[in-house]
Design a protein that fits this description.
It is a single chain. By secondary structure, the protein is an alpha/beta fold. The protein folds into five domains: about 1-95 and about 190-215, Periplasmic binding protein-like II (D-Maltodextrin-Binding Protein, domain 2, 3-Layer(aba) Sandwich); about 105-180, D-Maltodextrin-Binding Protein, domain 2 (3-Layer(aba) Sandwich), CATH 3.40.190; about 215-305, 2-Layer Sandwich (Double Stranded RNA Binding Domain), CATH 3.30.160; about 305-335 and about 455-529, Rossmann fold (3-Layer(aba) Sandwich), CATH 3.40.50; about 340-455, 3-Layer(aba) Sandwich (Rossmann fold), CATH 3.40.50. It has 19 helices and 24 strands. The strands form five sheets. Strands 16-21-20-17-18-19 form a six-stranded mixed β-sheet. Strands 2-1-3-10-4 form a five-stranded mixed β-sheet, sandwiched between helices. A five-stranded mixed β-sheet has the order 7-6-8-5-9, with helices on both faces. Strand 18, helix 14 and strand 19 (about 400-405) form a beta-alpha-beta unit. Helix 9 packs parallel to helix 10 (about 280-290), helix 15 packs parallel to helix 16 (about 435-440) and helix 17 (about 470-480) runs parallel beside helix 18. The longest helix has 16 residues, at about 15-30. The protein is globular, with a radius of gyration of 26 Å.
């Protein structure tokens, strides 16, 4: 039976239009599809400008989570909303042919105000605001959030002169007003007017299906624009525009880019034309030109004004993860837990073991520290966590069953393994939940201490407002050197339960991932800004 491709999308009119376009194109090729609407953080939090929310990928995060959880096979996005670095395991599967890339001005009355000193324009985009103020410095720009219909309604009900929209969005759902003015002088957001489809890297069937609807020219141009954005390290919090266009006659690509200060008072523009086959360094060269002209200084000046909050992560974060935080949040980090692998005796695995439990990636690495893949002949492997499962199947073998936490795994195994033995590769520091529940059901649990978990706390600055915790052990380590006078942002309920023994304010991420904890932090400080 042919696989039904589940298409994830936001539930706005425009997002559903885009999802249906992808659905139509795939079904014309003979694929079966189903649309699955999912709400995004950007649709829920409407009382802050996007740049104040500061979450990179605010409109894509929940779709990413749904895909990683297996609820959808592909996600359809307005490409300009997608972070330049996709989450691990998710890849760009297709870019549809680009529509109108321009910004347009929807007028309330007439355009006479554009020649006058006073005027009020609405937009939720920092890029549009900065470019408008650069051209009309005496005008006022007010925030405008919501889906297309909500924004049109707000324009109608307020005393603004006009509002700036992406032309493609209004045109796709047939809502472009007749008198709207094309702002050809305004450089659009990178990839504006394009639709991106993402899929799981490991899902070859779906990726091959999406390859059939990919537009090569649009893919080429948007890749250059997004690389330019990435090299300037800009996202929702920096006013950056970029546009690459292919001249089929001359076989050349023309690129225009812009970086502005948030108030529009400073602007750096760059433009370059190269043959199509020489495009490899186009984005890099243009980004370097902007930096050489003082672009970094402009961004640092803007960030310096807004850095107000300080947090500490009890686990080292990657640079990509740090970029998920708002510019208003300064983060410091160190590993409060150190891992040391034990030497596991060969006799432990010399015979094929019937049942094995591994509850963390550290357990996997500890086994591979002592043995080769060929030596690990386990008949049934049971594990905790999606990432642990992925690592096991990459480096050891097939996982029989996995659950999100140890308690759920114990309940699953309790009846299945009654009267049988299971070998549990664990740490010296661990919760007793799994072993206790299994032993109560007459399951013999052979615990093998595969690695040591050692506390490595750091005394943190009193000015730090929030601390990020990823396990009960990180909470315990933190408490050895610090006071519980801050906000505890926790990766899951088990960690939160330990934090609640000490902290008054404990917040828990919706999904047990580092990225979800960072989103929790971003939303918290967006509300305080």
């Amino acid at each position: 039976m042919q696989k039904i491709i589940k298409i994830g999308t936001r539930d706005s009119e425009l997002a559903l239009w885009q999802a249906n376009k992808v659905k139509k194109e795939l079904e014309e090729l003979g694929y079966q599809t189903q649309i699955v609407p999912i709400k995004s953080t950007g649709d829920i939090v409407l009382d802050k400008p996007l740049y104040e929310l500061g979450i990179t990928g605010i409109f894509t995060k929940n779709l990413d989570i749904a895909m990683l959880n297996g609820d959808i096979d592909i996600a359809v996005h307005s490409m300009k909303d997608v972070p330049t670095v996709l989450p691990t395991g998710i890849v760009q599967a297709a870019v549809l042919k680009r529509a109108n890339h321009h910004d347009i001005l929807v007028l309330k009355d007439t355009e006479e105000f554009m020649g006058q000193r006073e005027g009020i324009i609405a937009t939720g985009s920092l890029r549009r605001k900065a470019q408008w103020l650069n051209r009309y410095p005496t005008h006022e720009v007010v925030d405008l959030r919501g889906n297309v219909n909500t924004r049109l309604e707000k324009l109608e009900n307020n005393n603004w002169n006009g509002a700036v929209f992406a032309a493609a969005g209004l045109e796709r759902i047939g809502k472009r007003p007749q008198g709207a003015i094309s702002l050809s002088w305004m450089i659009p957001a990178p990839a504006q007017g394009a639709i991106m489809v993402t899929a799981l890297e490991e899902d070859t069937y779906t990726r091959e299906a999406c390859e059939n609807i990919n537009d090569r020219d649009t893919e080429t141009c948007t890749a250059i624009e997004r690389e330019f954005l990435n090299r300037l390290e800009g996202g929702c919090t920096a006013p950056i525009g970029a546009l690459a266009m292919i001249d089929e006659v001359e076989k050349q690509i023309t690129f225009k880019g812009v970086l502005l200060s948030r108030d529009g008072s400073k602007k750096i523009e760059v433009s370059k034309k190269v043959p199509i086959n020489h495009r490899k360094y186009l984005a890099k060269d243009c980004a370097n030109q902007v930096i050489d002209k003082g672009g970094k200084l402009i961004m640092l000046e803007d960030e310096g004004i807004e850095k107000q909050f300080s947090i500490y992560s009890t686990k080292k974060l990657s640079e990509a993860q740090k970029k998920l935080l708002p510019t208003t949040v300064k983060v410091e980090d160190s590993d409060f837990i150190k891992i040391r692998f034990n030497r596991i005796a060969p006799k432990v695995v010399k015979d094929e073991i019937e049942n094995v439990i591994i509850t963390s990636k550290n357990g996997v690495e500890a086994l591979l520290h002592s043995f080769t893949k060929a030596e690990l002949q386990f008949k049934h492997i049971y594990c905790v966590g999606r990432r642990t499962k992925k690592l096991i199947e990459q480096k050891i073998g097939k996982v029989t069953h996995s659950e999100n936490n140890a308690k759920k795994l114990a309940h699953y195994l309790a009846d299945k393994l009654k009267g049988k033995e299971v070998t549990y590769f664990c740490s010296n520091l661990r919760l007793d939940t799994l072993s206790v529940l299994l032993q109560a059901k007459e399951v013999i649990v052979n615990e093998v201490e595969a690695y040591k978990t050692m506390y490595s706390p750091v005394e943190i600055n009193a000015k730090v407002e929030g601390v990020l915790f990823y396990s009960p052990s990180t909470v315990e380590s933190y408490m050895e050197e610090n006071e519980a006078d801050k906000i505890a942002f926790c990766i899951g309920e088990t960690t939160a339960k330990e934090a609640e023994k000490h902290f008054k304010n404990v917040q828990v991420a919706k999904v047990p991932t580092v990225e979800s904890v960072l989103e929790l932090v971003s939303l918290h400080y967006a509300k305080k800004s």
